[in-house]
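Hi W.,

Here's what went into the run:
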Amino acid sequence: MGLQIFNTRTRRVEPFKPLDPSGRRVGMYCCGPTVYDYGHIGNFRTFVFADLVRRYLEFRGYEVRHVMNITDVEDKIIRGVRETGLSLQEYTSRYEKAFWEDAAALHLLTPHCRPRAAEHIGEIIKLVQRLMERGFAYKAPDGSVYFSIERYCRAGHRYGQLLNLDLDQLRPGARVSSDEYAKDAAADFALWKARSPEDGEVYWESPWGEGRPGWHIECSAMSMKYLGPSFDLHLGGEDLIFPHHEDEIAQSEGAELQPSGRPFVNYWLHGAHLLVEGRKMSKSLGNFFTLRDLLAQGFAGREIRFLLLSAHYRDPLNFTLQGLRAARGALERLDDCLQSLREIAGDAEAEPQPEPLDRFTAAMDENLNVSAGWAAVFDWVREQNRAIREGRLTPNQAAAALAAWRRLDSVWGLGEPEEKVPEEILALARERQEARKARDFQRADAIREELLRRGWRVEDTPKGPRVKRN
RNA sequence: GGCGGAGUAGCCAAGUGGCAAGGCAGGGCUCUGCAAAAGCCCCAUUCGUCGGUUCGAUUCCGACCUCCGCCUCCA
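Here's what came out:
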């Protein structure tokens, strides 16, 4: 039994099978950030989810090619450019850099390919041209190019693959900009937007005049460029199902580059949103957290990652600071166990224990059931602790346990605690240990108090004292 | 209004037609110079509410309540 995964396209949990005839290589595209601001914790839930998918596929022996786009042309970006007076590149590179810093703090594996929309205008124009040739796109009086859903459907394509759609029911949005009136039908969407005065210097030449790409087209152009016209996995937040991903399918399948019978994307995976303190995260409610806010409050990236991996990806996750503190506690338990195992194992090397891996794999194969996966981990931790306490763990056994953990952590991506203990703290700890040996407990306790004042806690173990951040 | 997701202990969160995993927090004990950590034990007669099907439902069906998402550029 291999990995089973929920596919939004079929609305079912189904076995994962790569398109690659050898069954090894997997193409995976994840909608990346729009770089107009610092990423918030909700954004990162989705990226941690995508990272988990990639890591688990690799754990399962697949060779994954992971592509994540950077959206660096878009309404909010253009507004930012206008307001700051920076160039497009200056403006977006600042936030893109911040994004990759945040991604590293959360231990996200770097995608193999990170294309920027603004650097793929040529590919985008070519794709729009092809859609024009196929008769699925039209130039409107305002100079923009739109995708005609009606013509696409008349040609035998299906619009509405990811959700039940009643196009007549589509309620017009509150904002109706002038170009909306230029479309043939309300549901048609822009492939190319004619340059407007607000765009300032953000525009490119095209066969239809100056302008910029529509929102969805970059993902079609770049995913097909780097993964081919038909690939395995496409992921994103659930809010992207419509219209973004639906339109992406229309553009990509409208280009008709896929081998016959093959869809643009085989498996669509969508992550549920995050709630904060039980409510939708919003700036006006004051429950809006960027990742940087949390790091600045002293939470470690791995603690945040742990919390984001504590709920199933298709369920809403309620993010709270209390939850983050609970994550810290759970991680500490795990870290302590691993530290003890390391002390016992010494230099010993061994093959991984099979047991925790089997249980973990069985859990994760079932649509990435992380909760059952964690249960496997913590039951295993209890077993190891018991063996350690009873002194019945040989260095080889400890090494085998650690090897198993390394396999598990190739998926969890927690790594080791990042904090280095400063030399003066270690010196105090040594001093206290000397006092203890001399049975000068008053002095030992005084030093412990001093360490606590400095924010460090000391624990005496059979292998000597351990110092931990309080 | 349409479509979709969710409601399980103080908090987070699995799961199953037959008497409810795991984590955090809390309580007791053991160990420890004292602590901490760890170990052992305890901590939901109950799974949003009300009906129905069934020998038996948290799990299936129906209604209702609440929350969340999408319905044109929000992960």
